[in-house]
Amino acid sequence: MAPTHPLAALRADEITAASKLIRSLWPAEAKFQFKTVTLEEPPKALALAVLEAEHAGKSLPNVPRKVLVNYYLRNTNKFHEAIVNLSSGRVERNVRLGANVHGAGDGAEIIAVEKLALEHPDVKAEIAKLQLPEGAVVVCDPWIYGADGVNDDDRMWQCYLYTRDTANSSELDSCHYAHPLPISPVISTADMKLVRIDILPTGADNMIKPLGPIHIRPANEYIPEYQQLRTDLKPLNVVQPEGASFTVKNEGTSSIVAWQKWHMRVSFNQREGMVLHDIRYDNRPLFYRASLSDMNIPYADPRHPYHKKSAFDLGDVGAGLMANDLQLGCDCLGSIYYLSSVLTDDEGAPIEMPNVVCIHEQDAGIGWKHTNYRTMRAAVVRRRELVLQSIITVANYEYILAFIFDQTGAMEYEVRATGILSTQPIDDGVDVPFGTRVHPGVLAVHHQHIFSLRVDPHLDGSAKNRLVYEEAHAMPRSDFNPHGTGYEVHETVVSKAGGLDIDPFANRTFKIQNVASRNPINGKPVAYKIHIPAFQPMLADKQSFNYRRAEFADKAVYVVRNNSATDSRALVSDELYSGGKYTNQSRGDAGVRTWSKRGDSVVDEDIVVFVQFGLNHVPRIEDFPVMPVEIIKVGFKPVNFFDRNPALDVPPSVQAVNKSVGLNGEVEAKVGEDGKVESCCTKEPTAKL
Amino acid sequence: MAPTHPLAALRADEITAASKLIRSLWPAEAKFQFKTVTLEEPPKALALAVLEAEHAGKSLPNVPRKVLVNYYLRNTNKFHEAIVNLSSGRVERNVRLGANVHGAGDGAEIIAVEKLALEHPDVKAEIAKLQLPEGAVVVCDPWIYGADGVNDDDRMWQCYLYTRDTANSSELDSCHYAHPLPISPVISTADMKLVRIDILPTGADNMIKPLGPIHIRPANEYIPEYQQLRTDLKPLNVVQPEGASFTVKNEGTSSIVAWQKWHMRVSFNQREGMVLHDIRYDNRPLFYRASLSDMNIPYADPRHPYHKKSAFDLGDVGAGLMANDLQLGCDCLGSIYYLSSVLTDDEGAPIEMPNVVCIHEQDAGIGWKHTNYRTMRAAVVRRRELVLQSIITVANYEYILAFIFDQTGAMEYEVRATGILSTQPIDDGVDVPFGTRVHPGVLAVHHQHIFSLRVDPHLDGSAKNRLVYEEAHAMPRSDFNPHGTGYEVHETVVSKAGGLDIDPFANRTFKIQNVASRNPINGKPVAYKIHIPAFQPMLADKQSFNYRRAEFADKAVYVVRNNSATDSRALVSDELYSGGKYTNQSRGDAGVRTWSKRGDSVVDEDIVVFVQFGLNHVPRIEDFPVMPVEIIKVGFKPVNFFDRNPALDVPPSVQAVNKSVGLNGEVEAKVGEDGKVESCCTKEPTAKL
């Protein structure tokens, strides 16, 4: 195994060593609840020196290997942040964090909270009032408590209760979201005690009705054995007879992926999941670092306790911790390489996370085409893409998260939102303007998904970049524009750190530029433009905790100076997460909006760009009991970075390679009859579905 | 062959019969230039009766077979519109159209104009001033003349001239767009004469410089033999070992395509290209008719004659006429069925148009997934799509146009813009705010692509539909919303015909509803929502000819009443094309904005919806010499139309069917080395690229 790269995630032995060093600070009988044991990345300047040596084939400079540790003394509210220097074997920092700074949830804790809530006699007494059928199984979904400033200094979980289908209680995978109960226990984590039991409003207003016998609803299952499955979907296989076009140099806790002139280092951590460093095309640096920074999902129901449903899935739990173990043939199609990872459990011990990233190629239709109508010669290439994908399960919901690279120097970040809507009980016949009834007695409340992608550009090898936006505006009438048809594109340089909106009516387009590197043909600065799909910023009002906490959620773009460039004592981890380093029950004033208030100049400086995008999910009944993917993509495309179409050198799309099958001619009648094909390319039939 | 369906395109013999009937109206020596001989569709009410009988398995009612014919008396400006009734053998209408109503271009005419422009001695004399190298080959791109109201009553072509690479003049497929010349002849079509020669501005202002020796520029070729092709792209094949999942019932000039509960009738005509009728899901009608209505591409350069570059590719020439003959293994991947068509030449004779539509399935990633974290059971299905694709070549540019259907009842219309930028000469060192230098001496001017998709809804079997839009707005603070987090979604009914904007900040979402059909679970009207990507409406000012002509280009959505429902004498063809029936050199006041001014009520009426979308193309140097696809999609998704996720019954994604190949394990090292895979699923190597 190669030596661990300074940007690679922690190895299992490093995790063990770091938590051991933390334990050594305390008496032997101390009990710990570790929340994070993760790489504290070296400052960018140091890391760039490493990358320079790496690409020059020189030995890498010595970089201290540091670890960010967050932990509680178990069963207390004493939450700590520590920096462990593994190179020196010293704990460089170990501070108890202030009031209202809380650690994220973890798997063991969530299971413990579920158990406690379901077994508490007071909860059982409330459930008894519902007179559930014999054998009914109650299920508990603990939710991050959120924040409203009302008696919420303690760290708590708000639990939402459901039953499995009471007519089929033995079905462990029954969709309990079709059977919400109006009872919501609250558990505090410091002492793992029941704080109170909230009874939920089920009408159109905020009245709380006394509990009584519950109306039993039909099941609504998503698992296949409860469906009459389609029988007319024929298999579709992706075959790469000569193998994949990419290479993976697996170095343990990071890997170098190379494909079609792209190069990147892939690692994986607890909070962000997949992280890319040192993204290059044709050996020209593009981005020093790219990752999902956080996401926020505020819900529309203003009634207690629903008004606090506002999840930060990365900050509150961790995209790495919730990553799926991806299965061959299920989660990707074609020739797949899997990356695995090591994360940390609540005892500070390493846990294996197998197959958290899958890498594969996909065909994405035509890449470019032109037919010369004079000669009738067509030139056409297909568009091949490389996909690096993770899938996370956040209790009810899932997100399919992928970086996608193409042959034109473009990078996309794709989110597919799927999984199950978080539901709540509603009385029959009631309609509310903040949710949709998706099943009898079941309300799915509107919610926003606001994603924040962090991109640290390094265009053409310089950290000195700027953010500009261009807009297209009509020219005024003049002698130059006598017919009123002209329009112009103007560029505005963003001078100070801050947030910016989209403006589709002006065709506002954000670009990251390196003005020190100019296009050899047209003299324009090399740039990457950012394609941001239209999105509605957070709707909660500016005084609300939702707004104050999700500091990225009001603007499509934030730009700030890299904190490690301006403050040599700053931790890189302090400004990786646009909603703040500690989002659980956070009070705000700790994310990218706050950082941008430093008023730093961001012109030809070491800048970081946060791109926000998302959707306002107004549920359809078609989104239940499991939701078809909603797909959102952010794109980064070269603008005057190359000197011509970078995909000109993609080999032509030809039948000798593509081996498509024509269904016309001999087989036309058969296609017309039953969809079967027989031709020289037909393979032996595989197993029927 | 089945009898021709009343909605099917004209057969070859019908084309011949119709043009013969037109010829019979005139003296035998009359010469004709036919512009259109195409089906005049029956009024919707009549067509619906046909569809009802068809789906009931009854014999179809008798519907007169009518033909829309446009023709000139050759070498005159006498342009006619005629309706031929083939059932009765009578010409029902034959009128000479008024001043400033002109016919579209056709292939033969374009070739003739090129020849005339290049061979005219006056043009040759101007070209001589450029002192082109020995053997230089000049190429002519005739452009639709556009309109500015200045001496443009006659129908004309504006010709732009280029050379092939003068160092390689024998290369017939040299990209001449890298070598624009500053000379632009104008040809009138009535007499096929040279009207004048425009000399083009090449600086930043509108000064015209005297012609002199031209600066010879390097070549910039797109065809593969001039590239150093990538050698590391391995083949990727899509294999359907049991055949395709769709069936095609080919009835000659229309076909019934059925796939995964979808049903539609596909036909193809000269102007719109592919047209879909009777689109159903699970035998529930969704749309009576869907097609691309027109597109407009206005350019930003305000200087004569460039200010008149504003193409209507459907109205000015025809998406059908420009359709590519699609090739197996080049334009699609997998198992492909091709549809062919018959159109009309300028003599009114039928011309075969082979392989104008390709039909295939594609895998589109995960369709939905959920993992129960308590049992760790994952349920996942893939998303299969059916693609019906045409590709059109509009001189320099191409559009890849596709209807895409999925397994959740959703329909998409996808446009991929590719091909070559229309270029013009520019002096060295000059930058202009309305274009990008993409090659030495070559300016690619900014331009808007504004597409207009026409959808005639028939949700759940009723023509009585309404258009609504919903918006999400913050709730004011109140006792009900004490924390300022709540938000609501409100629906507004569009009462009168007219145009509407997008509003991303309000999450404005348009929906087509049938209020007479209610969701059985939540009582909401069945609906389809329209996903429209953010787009900038036309920038040309409201007094400009560009604006007045492209009546669809100012609003994302237009809704009108179906003209054949309100006026029994109306022709269906009068209101199919949102920029007007005759766009070539049109003067405006003839498209959807004008129709909407009737002020018709559109609530629970027979409505037609036009969806506009597009992009403002600010060229990058990466878009030359051929442009990577820009992809834009409009989506139509069911909202409370079904009673749960319609894709619940898609069989699970499993390895036994998907036959993916794992690259880890045994082959890990090999992948790390050279990307080769060897596993039990590996096929014999195919030919190397």
Automatic annotation (TrEMBL), chains A, B:
What keywords is this UniProt entry annotated with? Copper, Disulfide bond, Metal-binding, Oxidoreductase, TPQ
Q: What is this protein called?
A: Amine oxidase
Name the domain of life this protein comes from. Eukaryota
Which InterPro entries does this chain map to?
Answer: Cu_Am_ox_TPQ-bd (IPR049948), Cu_amine_oxidase (IPR000269), Cu_amine_oxidase_C (IPR015798), Cu_amine_oxidase_C_sf (IPR036460), Cu_amine_oxidase_N-reg (IPR016182), Cu_amine_oxidase_N2 (IPR015800)
Its GO biological process annotations read: amine metabolic process
Listed under subunit, the entry gives: Homodimer.
Listed GO MF terms: copper ion binding; primary methylamine oxidase activity; quinone binding
Q: Where is the Copper amine oxidase catalytic domain?
A: 236-648
Identify the PROSITE patterns for this entry. Answer: COPPER_AMINE_OXID_1
